[in-house]
Amino acid sequence: MDLREKAEVVRRLLDAAYPDAQCTLAHNSPFQLMIATILSAQCTDERVNAITPDLFRRFPDPESFARAEIHEIEDAIRSAGLYRSKAKNIQWACRLLVERHGGQVPRTLEELVRLPGIGRKTANVILGNAFGVPGLAVDTHVARVSRRLGLTSHQDPVSIERDLTALFPPESWVRLSHQLIRHGRVLCHARRPQCAPCPQKDLCDHYRTRTRSGGRKASPR
């Protein structure tokens, strides 16, 4: 089985295991998703979802964030962690939306990554989930699972994204990212992966390494 054939089997198994995998950041618009992705840095989606309902009632649009006092934003997002830098990024991103984009979230990767607090991963989240533009967001779960499966040997997210997008069809990229994240959270944990019930184990380089070592602890990769 070559790597492309392996990727197709991985995709089918993920579809069977996680048919309903989707973005877990609650949002009703591209703008709300943009703010949620900024807040999600080093913060759980659950915590972000607890913050955003009140946040969006107080600041429903880019204009309201842009004209707010910075301490008002900080107070509203304090429990997300790194709240000072996140508040600054949110306000400056919103000012740029108002000044350069007519108050609308841009629809291209190049424009999104120019906004404060938006990197390539979060830009792909916004493009895929708000606009239906194929994009593959690589977070720590996606990186770990794809390396363990032998779909990439790289450590940096851009190279991992390039490897995965070369193996999988564009129409699967958004769903695949959510499925790999779910798999990483449910079974393929960083320190103690649950290999026995994993439907991918027969394809998994990491599992084969553990099996050959007699179950001794292998590198988390």
Automatic annotation (TrEMBL):
Occurrences of domain Helix-hairpin-helix DNA-binding motif class (ranges): 110-129
SUPFAM superfamilies hit by this protein: DNA-glycosylase
E.C. number(s) listed in UniProt: 4.2.99.18
Binding-site residues for [4Fe-4S] cluster, renumbered to this chain: C188, C195, C198, C204
Domain HhH-GPD: 39-186
Xref: PROSITE patterns: ENDONUCLEASE_III_2
InterPro entries, per the entry: DNA_glycosylase, Endonuclease-III-like_CS2, HhH-GPD_domain, HhH_base_excis_C, HhH_motif, Hlx-hairpin-Hlx_DNA-bd_motif, Nth
GO molecular function, one term: class I DNA-(apurinic or apyrimidinic site) endonuclease activity
Keyword field: 4Fe-4S, DNA damage, DNA repair, DNA-binding, Endonuclease, Glycosidase, Hydrolase, Iron, Iron-sulfur, Lyase, Metal-binding, Nuclease
Cofactor binding note of this UniProt entry: Binds 1 [4Fe-4S] cluster.
Catalytic activity: 2'-deoxyribonucleotide-(2'-deoxyribose 5'-phosphate)-2'-deoxyribonucleotide-DNA = a 3'-end 2'-deoxyribonucleotide-(2,3-dehydro-2,3-deoxyribose 5'-phosphate)-DNA + a 5'-end 5'-phospho-2'-deoxyribonucleoside-DNA + H(+)
Cofactor: [4Fe-4S] cluster
GO biological process: base-excision repair, AP site formation
CDD domains the record matches: ENDO3c
Lineage: superkingdom: Bacteria
One Pfam family it belongs to: HhH-GPD
Coiled coil: none
Family the entry assigns: Belongs to the Nth/MutY family.
Function: DNA repair enzyme that has both DNA N-glycosylase activity and AP-lyase activity. The DNA N-glycosylase activity releases various damaged pyrimidines from DNA by cleaving the N-glycosidic bond, leaving an AP (apurinic/apyrimidinic) site. The AP-lyase activity cleaves the phosphodiester bond 3' to the AP site by a beta-elimination, leaving a 3'-terminal unsaturated sugar and a product with a terminal 5'-phosphate.
Protein name: Endonuclease III
